[in-house]
Amino acid sequence: xxxxxxxxxxxxxxxxxxxxxxxxxxxxxxxxxxxxxxxxxxxxxxxxxxxxxxxxxxxxxxxxxxxxxxxxxxxxxxxxxxxxxxxxxxxxxxxxxxxxxxxxxxxxxxxxxxxxxxxxxxxxxxxxxxxxxxxxxxxxxxxxxxxxxxxxxxxxxxxxxxxxxxxxxxxxxxxxxxxxxxxxxxxxxxxxxxxxxxxxxxxxxxxxxxxxxxxxxxxxxxxxxxxxxxxxxxxx
Length: 236
Hints:
Blueprint: E1 10-15, H1 32-40, H2 49-62, H3 81-86, H4 93-98, E2 110-115, E3 121-130, H5 134-146, H6 149-152, H7 155-165, E4 171-173, E5 179-181, H8 191-213, H9 218-221, E6 224-230
Antiparallel strand pairs: 1-6, 2-3, 3-6, 4-5
């Protein structure tokens, strides 16, 4: 999906990537989840300029439809790296225009609000926990329902996480397979996107710590968690 500027922003994601390996992070003009999926899919044809143009057109059309991606939760090899993709942003024009929440998000397990560096206010909701082990599902639901997430997102924690993000490789894959740096210090750097990623990583790491403390086998339980964020006026 090509990144565009909308009057508002709605992110919808399913936490729990299938791979535990570190993944690609914020792309300047491509949705990071699309990058991850593209990397994991088998190559079926050569990406010529014509093919790339057609794909770009289809991606732009798809950006006008609200979507939810479902992924299983798995502890990444690098703590919190999943949040780089899953909480980094999948803007959808239709939902942004209406401001409507998904049905599950009307009664979420947790809801937080925070301000981006640009001054834009975001509201993020998490819930719709699913899995094959009811006890494991209950642990995740309890985490969201009882944890003081605002306390987790202290200035110190956010500053530390942002500093860590800036030490990590953030790049995207070009049509020819080459990689372009897209992190801090490049022309593609976006402070709001970085901050949103930091928020997601902090929450992800806290949940991972709770799952570890409760001896939850997330792979066996097939845990998945939905999240949705509205950031009206944000540009990414």
